[in-house]
Structure formats: structure tokens, C-alpha cells
Specification:
Elements lengths: L1 H21 L2 H22 L7 H26 L1 H7 L4 H4 L4 H22 L1 H18 L9 H27 L8 H20 L5 H6 L5 H5 L1 H24 L7 H19 L7 H27 L2
Helix pairs in contact: 2-3, 2-8, 2-14, 3-6, 3-7, 3-8, 6-7, 7-8, 8-9, 9-12, 9-14, 12-13, 13-14
Organism: Nodularia harveyana UHCC-0300
EC number: 2.5.1.115
GO molecular function, one term: homogentisate phytyltransferase activity
Length: 312
């Protein structure tokens, strides 16, 4: 009996680990921080206190966005199994941990849950989630499959992460807090920052995947321009992001603590350039590690910016 119980526990553990990989953890963390970060910004700019009632709207948004996240990244994996066997053989569909049917069931379930939870939570959230899922579907699914075209692929990624998520979540939380007002300057600053930042993520992510993309005729900026050019372009795009926030701080933009925003972003910018000097573009694992480092900077912004908005 204990042997059967042990096998069941091992199976559950393996399945959960495979599901965790299937959900692409770095995107899950980014989505979670964006939800909670935008909530804190909404509280800060509307001068609304915290309350237990607000948790319903926050938790609903979090669950809907997480389900939508899994739908989008899962659909991409369903369509890229052969490519992932070259680029990302550790992913569950490429490694055989999940069958195609299991992957399809997870993706359909997550998509339906995302829309249902969003619909029950609020109209702005439903609109944001529905639009994000539509773009995610067009990105991966034939016959449209926008990921085949560098410009449209990048546009899909940074339009969702940069514009739709930030503005949609703020409008949702603003509505939940009972505030009907124009989007404040601080939210526009964050939206533009993330929009440009996500463009860097969108072009950088293809550098370690160049081998499989070339094999299966997926045209990317890396294949067109070369890994070194894309690497440097991404670094300068991120530099523009951080210097932009520094300028905003110097100009003392309303709703953003100037000292904290200037100092924190200059420190991060210096650290990014120092870290970039050690990257060997001939080493695929080194490039992948730096890509994950860029995602950590993405996470950090959703911590630093709400703090800058909450500080007096």
C-alpha cells in the first residue's frame, strides 16, 4: 500500500514540476509582479487606503492573468514542439513529459478559466484578458502565426506586456477602487518604460534560439542581423529605458519620488552594463543566463516603481 502511495506522490510531484516548466516560470513571476505592482500604484496615485474588500479584485485579476499566461505560453509550445526539441528540449512537450493531448487540455482549460474569472471580476479586466488571449493566439497559431515575422512577433510581445497589461490592470483597479478618472502621468511613465523594455526582451529572446529558428525557417532579428548586433541593440534599448526614468526623476514628475527613482535606476543601469561585459556570445548558456538576468530587471521594475509612487 505504501509503495502505491509513494508512486502516486512521485507522479504528482513530477506532473506539478512538468506543469511548472510548461507555464514558463519567468513569465509567471513577471505577470504576478505586474498585477500586484499595478495595484499598489493604483492605491498610491488615488490616495485610497488598503482594505480587505479590494483583495477580491486583486486575487481575481491575479488568477485570470496567470491562467491567461499559461494559455499563451502553452499554445506557443503546442505549435513549436519540433523547434523546442532543438532550442528548449527541457520543456514538457519537447521532452515527452506531456503528450500533445495533455498540452491541448491544459491550454483550453486555462483559456476558459482566464475569461470566466475575468468576466466575474470586472469589465476592464475581461477586456484586457480577452485582447491578450487574442493576440497570443494570433502570435502562435496558424495560419496567422505572427511569430514568423520579426516585426509582428516583437509587436505582439511588447504590446501585450507593455501597453495592454499595464493600462488594463490600472483601469481595472481604478474601477474596483471606485475611482473614475483619467490615467495619471505615473502610469503612463511605467507603461512607456515597460513597452520599450519588453521590446528588448522580445528581440533578445531569439539569440539563444537561433539554431532551431533557422532550422525551421522562423525569421528573427537575430538571424537577420546577427547575435552581436541584437545583443548590443537590446542593451542600448534598456539603457534608454533607465535614462528615461532618470530624466523623469530629475524633472520631478508628479506622483514619482525623484530621489529614489533617479538613484535606483542609475544603480541598476550600471549593474546591467557591468554584467553584460562578461557575456560570451559564443556560449549559448551564457546568453540564456543573461536573458534571465534581463527578466530579473523586469521583475525589479514592478517593485521599484510602485515604491517610487508610494513614497512621499
Amino acid at each position: 500500500m505504501s509503495e502505491i502511495s509513494g508512486r502516486s506522490s512521485n507522479f504528482q510531484g513530477n506532473w506539478l514540476y512538468a506543469f511548472w516548466k510548461f507555464s514558463r516560470p519567468h513569465t509567471i513571476i513577471g505577470t504576478s509582479l505586474s498585477v500586484w505592482g499595478l495595484y499598489l500604484i493604483a492605491v498610491g496615485v488615488t490616495s485610497t487606503g488598503f482594505s480587505a474588500v479590494q483583495l477580491v479584485s486583486v486575487m481575481g485579476a491575479w488568477i485570470a492573468c496567470l491562467c491567461g499566461n499559461v494559455y499563451i505560453v502553452g499554445l506557443n509550445q503546442l505549435e513549436d514542439v519540433e523547434i523546442d526539441k532543438v532550442n528548449k528540449p527541457h520543456l514538457p512537450l519537447a521532452s515527452g513529459e506531456f503528450s500533445q493531448q495533455q498540452g491541448q487540455l491544459i491550454v483550453i482549460t486555462m483559456g476558459v478559466l482566464a475569461l470566466v474569472v475575468a468576466g466575474l471580476t470586472g469589465p476592464f479586466l475581461l477586456g484586457m484578458v480577452a485582447l491578450s488571449l487574442a493576440i497570443g493566439t494570433a502570435y502562435s497559431l496558424p495560419p496567422i502565426r505572427l511569430k514568423q515575422f520579426p516585426f509582428w512577433a516583437a509587436l505582439c510581445i511588447f504590446s501585450v506586456r507593455g501597453t495592454i497589461v499595464n493600462l488594463g490592470l490600472f483601469l481595472h483597479f481604478n474601477w474596483a477602487l471606485g475611482k473614475i478618472a483619467a490615467i495619471p502621468p505615473a502610469v503612463w511613465v511605467l507603461t512607456i518604460f515597460i513597452l520599450v523594455f519588453t521590446f528588448a526582451i522580445a528581440i533578445f529572446k531569439d539569440i539563444p534560439d537561433m539554431e532551431g529558428d533557422r532550422l525551421y525557417n522562423i525569421t528573427t532579428f537575430t538571424i537577420q542581423l546577427g547575435p552581436e548586433a541584437v545583443f548590443n541593440l537590446a542593451l542600448w534599448v534598456l539603457t534608454v529605458c533607465y535614462l528615461g526614468i532618470v530624466v523623469i526623476g530629475v524633472l520631478r514628475f508628479a506622483g514619482i519620488n525623484p530621489v529614489f527613482s533617479v538613484v535606483s535606476h542609475l544603480v541598476i543601469l550600471a549593474g546591467m552594463w557591468m554584467r553584460s561585459l562578461s557575456v560570451d556570445l559564443e556560449d549559448k548558456s551564457a546568453i540564456a543566463q543573461f536573458y534571465q538576468f534581463i527578466w530579473k530587471l523586469f521583475y525589479l521594475e514592478y517593485i521599484m516603481f510602485p515604491i517610487a509612487c508610494l513614497l512621499p
